[in-house]
Amino acid sequence: MRRALDTAITVKAVCPHDCPDTCGMVVTVDTTSGRAIDLRGDKEHPFTRGFLCQKVNNYLERVYHPDRLLHPLKRVGRKGEGKFTRISWEEAVRTISEKFKEISRSDDGPQSILPYSYAGTMGKLMYSSLDRRFFHRLGASLLDRTICATAGAVGCDVTLGTRAMIDPEAAVNARYIVNWGSNTSVTNIHFWKVEHEARKLGARIVTIDPYKSPTAQKSDWWIPIRPGTDAALALGVMHIIFREGWQDDAYLSNHCVGEKELRDRALNEYPPEKVSHITGLSVEEIERFAREYARSQELFGGPALIRLNYGLQRHGGGGMAVRTIVCLPALTGDWKHPGAGAFLSTSKAYPFDDHYLTRPDLIPRGTRTINMVNLAEALHGELPGPPVKALFVYNSNPAAVNPDQSRVLSGLAREDLFTVVHDQFQTDTADFADIVLPATTQLEHFDIHNSYGHLYVQSNNQAIAPLGESKPNTEVFRLLARAMGFEPELFEESDEQIAARSIRDGAVFPSPARREGKEQPEALRGITLDATKAGPVRLNLPANWAPFANGEFPTLSGKCELYSEREARAGRDPLPHYVPPHEDPQTKPELAAKYPLQLLTPPATPFLNSTFVNVDTLRKNAGERTLEIHPTDAASRGIADGQMVNVFNGRGRFRAKALVRESVKPGVVVSLGLWWRKFTDDGANCNTTTSTATTDFGGGATFFDNLVEVAAL
């Protein structure tokens, strides 16, 4: 909504980036020039409360960056060279549509066309609406969007039937808060504020992480676990809980299945001594953590909460790790208490009409699915089905973010591959495009947002006119649909009409909703588009919501499934267990003899994956590419603090400046990413070393499952 202030107006907006906070923003626009002159956090947002992260505080620098793409371009140089000439939108759309028609008529058919997108913007319209309808109607290959969160999501589904969820505002009631693989103070700063408020009321904050992240530094206790061994620690904690009789027998009896089987496994197979060997933690640390976690009511005056995040599931056993950890609140009964239990994502609390948005009914029978993690294999013709002849990239920068970067780049360099990139900037991926289309920023289009870190719906109101000839995703796919001759009824609704239908706004569509049996679900009851345009609207859920207080798990049994009959029927182990990383020094000693160090590559604080790397202020704040290495490992390799090093394995290598620190355990190194190639001195980033192996559940990426060696330059 807009408010007039003399010669300026303020506009309510939403941060669109891949972050659980989904912050409310207020944009001030000069009415004379039409230029945004200020951007601040929305003080009226009940959860994000008026402050923004370092990245989005600099968002206007992104909007008005001198390198913004403002016009369509076509390639005139070699692929990867980054040489283009300006063309009209008419020529760009004609070129794309004619190429798509040509490919669709060929023997290989439309499945030779691959869309590639992820979470460059998280709005419901720009992330997944007309784009999905377009590619479904076209008959293109389906993209399995797994790169970030699927392993943990599926792991949660096995145990809980939905992602681990609480009311984040109620977490102030917790008195023992465990950031398990979560750098919360950087990647979820408004929930860190809740944790800090809980701490002032007596809570203890613990962080389990192989890396002494900013969150670990600010916590009361850092537990430096070995990468990829989280499930073993959780099972060791279960062993101690059952051994000492600290479990909540009533909750286990009334609301869980498989307590006996899990008890037997934990007691017989995961004693602290074995878990100590696996995790690199001492028996004393494991015993102490189990005691404090299980007895938090007695020791700290309130229940315990585990804040999970996606870093801990980026290894071969990542799905099972999350499946195992979210069993713990059932043992302790913490699910009974508001703000306690375990928390991964709130996204499934939002019953948007995703079927209406994406129209999966348009998908031709037998259409293949390509896992986005395996883009290197797809571009090199190593997957079943027809070769990929065309790639349409939007909301993503795979040349920087995908594993096995060197092979992704060689695939993008194929002269026979027709590539379109829709972006705000000439990214590393756009350098390989045949056609580049200019995209709007969040200030230049309308969208509607849910969140995976709180319970508020909010619309992003357009604040300024699109710069140059930039267009939002929805308009691009309307243009392409017209050029392809697709049915107008699939594409010609306005963005606001689509948003209203997605929340089944009865004020806008009363009769069709009733006729189609699509009245608003309870969580959206009474929420209108106009209300969300005025500011954040909480889902229709009770205050201090505790979804599993009385059981009622959305599983087949209706209970927390410590034993999963579904997994048993599929021929898999039905109980939680430890799955080692693919590249683990303990289970792959021959590989570790060549590449003995476990590399982790979390995002640098000024970046969000590869987003914001080209913003000058933020890149300067990030400084140089670095590699944190323990003094013991540095000394054995003759590496001095501040020295340049090569980080390498059989897949690739990159250069970084060594920081000799005790911020990592011996055997672990950390390089903060993700840098664009064009801002490096060697044309590579850390993903030259990562593999395309996937997780046990969900086919997720295994970025933190990576053995390397380090040598001084």
Describe this structure in words.
The chain has 713 residues and is α/β, with parallel strands linked by helices. The chain has 4 domains: 2-63, N-terminal domain of TfIIb (Single Sheet), CATH 2.20.25; 73-145 and 355-447 and 472-495, Rossmann fold; 151-344 and 558-569, Dimethylsulfoxide Reductase, domain 2 (3-Layer(aba) Sandwich); 589-712, Beta Barrel (Barwin-like endoglucanases), CATH 2.40.40.20. Helix content is 31%, strand content 17%. It has 29 helices and 28 strands. Strands 6-5-18-17-16-7 form a 6-stranded mixed sheet, with helices on one face. The chain has a 6-stranded mixed β-barrel with strand order 23-27-24-26-25-28.
Low-confidence stretches: none
Q: Helicity, in percent?
A: 25-40%
User: In the CATH hierarchy, what is the architecture of the largest domain at level 2?
Assistant: 3-Layer(aba) Sandwich
Instruction: State the helix count.
Output: 29
| Biggest sheet record | 6 strands, mixed
Shape: globular
Number of domains: 4
Q: What order do the strands of the largest sheet run in, or round the barrel if closed?
A: 6-5-18-17-16-7
CATH topology of the largest domain: Dimethylsulfoxide Reductase, domain 2
Strand content: 15-25%
CATH class annotation of the largest domain? Alpha Beta
Work out the number of β strands: 28
